[in-house]
């Protein structure tokens, strides 16, 4: 398959990721386009196969929550909201791929005018029925917004999942009001965690993560969609820190458990391990990650795009 950004057929291998899915071991390979530098999964699994896997992962999601993960995750939602307010201001917001709706819920609690789109039916229904949020079921291409425009559009851990990210960004551009901003959070392939964990790094998430974006490839992609990268921020979130800690502590886990995104929540900490973890987390991990982010080596990259 040619590069979806520049059309080139020329690439070089980056990394091969072994993943066990339903007792079958798969090898997923990331390659880098020799012409534009975009990193993509190649060959890519069929979209039907992926959708089936997403549905299976939801089940794990529901049973895997823990008090500890919950704490870190909610902290992330507040920091996400504050981040958006700092870098994109306030206004009418659309969250693309709202997942379990916790970010949208945080926005609503803070008085935002916000709505979302979510393609996984069960997730969208949960958000509407249990959280009372305004969520459209489907992809952003499928939903008719009746000519409405948004001041801010957020895509948290979404663009690496979509089959045609350039088309998604073009749709984002179409839906943004003039001068509006998009906040695009993706895994950082150049992060220190990616280097340490290699094929076991959570951010790879094969086969769900189809693309890895870096500043140069994102700039090209944004421009081809009518957007401009106006800021790039490196950010490690509490939940990625926690996952990394878990990867270290439970290092005898199979690589598949760490590379499948929704499997990461099955944490079983004893009370003693919990309190030791809290001390390590607050005194050591948080300051270390602040430094790592400042060096552009954080787990996530957040691109601010302007129309
Ligand atoms: Zn290319």
Report what the structure shows:
The protein has a single domain (17-306), classed as 3-Layer(aba) Sandwich (Rossmann fold). Helix content is 40%, strand content 23%. It contains 10 helices and 11 strands. The strands form 2 sheets. It has a 7-stranded mixed β-sheet with strand order 6-5-4-7-8-11-10, with helices on both faces. A 4-stranded antiparallel β-sheet has the order 1-2-3-9. Helix 2 (67-88) crosses helix 3 (102-109). Zinc ion is lined by residues 3, 5-6, 8, 33, 35-36, 38.
What would the average pLDDT be, to the nearest integer? 83
Provide the CATH topology: Rossmann fold
- Report the uncertain regions: 59-71, 252-267
Task: Let me know the CATH homologous superfamily.
Answer: Vaccinia Virus protein VP39
Task: Tell me the total number of β-strands.
Answer: 11
Question: What percentage of the residues does DSSP assign to strands (E)?
Answer: 15-25%
The top-level CATH class is Alpha Beta
What is the number of domains? 1
Coarse morphology: globular
Structural class: alpha/beta
Largest sheet: 7 strands, mixed
N-to-C CA distance:
30 Å
Query: What is the CA-atom radius of gyration, in angstroms?
Result: 19 Å
Name of the CATH architecture:
3-Layer(aba) Sandwich
């Amino acid at each position: 398959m040619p590069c979806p950004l520049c059309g080139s057929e020329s690439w070089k291998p980056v990394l091969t990721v072994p993943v066990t899915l339903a007792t079958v071991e798969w090898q997923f390979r990331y390659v880098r386009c020799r012409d534009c530098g975009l990193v993509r999964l190649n060959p890519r699994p069929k979209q039907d196969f992926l959708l089936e896997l997403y549905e299976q992962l939801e089940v794990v999601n529901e049973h895997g929550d823990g008090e500890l993960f919950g704490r870190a995750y909610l902290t992330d939602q507040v920091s996400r909201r504050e981040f958006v307010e700092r870098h994109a201001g306030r206004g009418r917001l659309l969250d693309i791929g709202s997942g379990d709706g916790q970010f949208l819920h945080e926005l609503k609690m803070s008085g935002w005018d916000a709505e979302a789109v979510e393609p996984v039916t069960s997730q969208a229904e949960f958000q509407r029925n249990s959280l009372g949020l305004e969520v459209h079921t489907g992809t952003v291409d499928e939903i008719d917004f009746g000519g409405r425009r948004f001041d801010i559009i957020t895509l948290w851990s979404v663009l690496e999942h979509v089959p045609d990210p350039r088309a998604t960004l073009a749709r984002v551009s179409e839906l943004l009001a003039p001068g509006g901003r998009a906040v695009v959070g993706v895994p950082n392939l150049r992060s220190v965690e990616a280097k340490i964990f290699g094929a076991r790094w959570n951010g790879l998430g094969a086969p769900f993560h189809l693309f890895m974006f870096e500043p140069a490839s994102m700039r090209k992609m944004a421009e081809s969609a009518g957007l401009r990268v106006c800021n790039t921020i490196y950010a490690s979130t509490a939940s990625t820190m926690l996952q990394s800690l878990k990867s270290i502590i439970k290092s005898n886990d199979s690589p598949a458990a760490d590379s499948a995104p929704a499997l990461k929540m099955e944490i079983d900490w004893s009370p003693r391990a919990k309190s030791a973890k809290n001390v390590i987390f607050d005194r050591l991990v948080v300051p270390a990650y602040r430094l790592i982010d400042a060096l552009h080596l954080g787990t996530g990259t957040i691109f601010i795009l302007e129309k």
